[in-house]
Amino acid sequence: MTHDADHEVYRRQGFGAELGLHGNMGFLLVDFVNGFADPAKFGGGNIAPAIERSRDLLAQARALRWPVAHSRIVFADDGADANVFAAKVPGLLALTEHAPASAIVDALAPVAGELVVRKTTPSAFFGTALAAWLTAHGVGTLAIAGCTTSGCVRASAVDAMSHGFRPVIVEDCVGDRAQAPHRASLFDLRQKCADVMMRDALLAAVRRRDAP
Amino acid sequence: MTHDADHEVYRRQGFGAELGLHGNMGFLLVDFVNGFADPAKFGGGNIAPAIERSRDLLAQARALRWPVAHSRIVFADDGADANVFAAKVPGLLALTEHAPASAIVDALAPVAGELVVRKTTPSAFFGTALAAWLTAHGVGTLAIAGCTTSGCVRASAVDAMSHGFRPVIVEDCVGDRAQAPHRASLFDLRQKCADVMMRDALLAAVRRRDAP
Amino acid sequence: MTHDADHEVYRRQGFGAELGLHGNMGFLLVDFVNGFADPAKFGGGNIAPAIERSRDLLAQARALRWPVAHSRIVFADDGADANVFAAKVPGLLALTEHAPASAIVDALAPVAGELVVRKTTPSAFFGTALAAWLTAHGVGTLAIAGCTTSGCVRASAVDAMSHGFRPVIVEDCVGDRAQAPHRASLFDLRQKCADVMMRDALLAAVRRRDAP
Amino acid sequence: MTHDADHEVYRRQGFGAELGLHGNMGFLLVDFVNGFADPAKFGGGNIAPAIERSRDLLAQARALRWPVAHSRIVFADDGADANVFAAKVPGLLALTEHAPASAIVDALAPVAGELVVRKTTPSAFFGTALAAWLTAHGVGTLAIAGCTTSGCVRASAVDAMSHGFRPVIVEDCVGDRAQAPHRASLFDLRQKCADVMMRDALLAAVRRRDAP
Q1: Taking each helix axis from N to C terminus, what angle separates A4-12 and B179-192, rounded to the nearest 10 degrees?
Q2: What is the ipTM for the molecules in this complex?
């Protein structure tokens, strides 16, 4: 847990400026798949409530015609693409194309026109066409939901920023299997990488900005 | 601070396997520049001791002929390359090519043949030739020192893993301006991305492996 | 030289559709540096006239407030970043930061606010922040001038397309040291990657599109 | 067709040095799928003979235990990932996961342990885990077969070089729908990017190098 004295250091050194909403919104849902919703597999903590709260955000994003992208971890059936990430977390190799654990949860199932990227690394941008797709769709600010906060969400947010998008972590729509890493990553992301907003605050800010 | 119950979740779900040393070693020093050594700028915490302990590791790496790479954050003099990272942390724009704050600390100054990459993002891999250079030099396992643990070191370690290298975070050679983020990132990195070893343990393991 | 029968194959298989102008324009000048303007170094052919014709295009781009980016090949003074490209073309290692040969030609010298990327590979996108910068500046269509058509221009155009930008090769503003490779690459680019337009036709199309 | 005078320019300017075989060999087969083997779709020219001659090279590569990777162009069933490449060549959108046209030809079907990357751009490296996989497998020199020479083979070879691998284009194992672009790209690749060798010469050179 960061202490008040820590916050003061970051404030004094000029971290944590607000990015604000610029350009078109896009929406990325990171790894909301059955295997990460299931505490017996890779889930637990506050992931289930994050999925539940993301339902309404996804519905709003669709109504507002934001480009929507989803990521899944998918390894080859024969394990030919086993990599360092899988060496560190061997169970990930079970997330093959047709394994139920690698399927996006029903509540957030993609619809036609939404991008689904398969990846074998934490970031949804690494080794995928996600950045190119968001660029071609004119996205300036990227709302991010998903799991886990300290893993694939964080890596994706860092890459979103590096690729030139303004990330907004939707605080109540990201989850992690343990709360200390969840909170520590939200702190870091807010200081160095992204805006962090509650779902309803984000939607209100978008509505305010886009009001005629 | 992660709790014992958290550790148990990670263990049960199969995180944190040891990567081990494979192939040739390489050494990356992340952002050990004057501005991050200086508590009045971006420094503080345990960064200074990490620099001190990295001196001997760098000397050993050179003696063992590991490919050595350094990273610096460098923005253009006219700020033309200001990006989202700089919007979040505006003071970074002062780290221009000839600003003393962007120069690598004297104690770890690069020598001929060592790669120095300039970057405008947390990861030393993003938008640089680092991965290609390590690949061309046949590096399999990448020892990482630098600062900050929760910022550029972590982003670089995640990318090192994604690019196919086995990262080893040298625990007493990485530092951060605040200790809670430092410890939280070491926990996450060890679970999902890298081996984490003390300097002397790493050197002993390398010597053991390479003994005739 | 491609023959009529070849064109017919491409037409029948559905290559060469027109991309058109979408979104904001950006302008990339590839490697218009002294060393590539000089027939005694890496220049020759129609590179000099391409530079001459790019002057007016650059002036127009600035007047229209397009984001403008330039690329240079720059290797480290100590050759530490020598790579496979330099193994293939050893003379490139002479293009160090302060070598006159690596400086952008006076006629097209960058002004404040224009991005200058240093690279050690053919593509101006590879290992640079160019894609992120164009994305952050909201570029949709990227006009490309520079040299050489069959080398760095072509590699940059392929990457521009892959990164989600619509490339327009400005035919009379790109040049090559030999005309057969120049013409062959224009053919390939038009079929599979980019629109190819003469400078005045491009400017007229932009004016037509943006007329009130 | 390049003329003798052109060759002389390249020679005088120092292009076309030989890379040679360094480190472990790997083998990449680019887009040898039914749709590119079929002159009624995207095939024709010398693609069929290139496939035929690649059979033996693939058998040898397997016997020598080279890491082997294949690429396929695959777009989503709903076209959600339609991009600039597909805007230029709309027929590519028919190459969906289960379309026979996107399946690797029977003669070169992947076996367990071989990487298969799906891509939506010319380069087999762009937006895929290919570079990371080759790095993790310790590849230094990458033999490249596939089609088309002037399209996906060329883009992949340029990226292979940029990622730090030494590309060898296997001249009689790459093919194109038209011969002028095929020959022009072989010329460019040999001057600026890769060694170009006939299959039997490559295998003989490898055997010579690795002889006890």
Answers
A1: 100
A2: 0.97
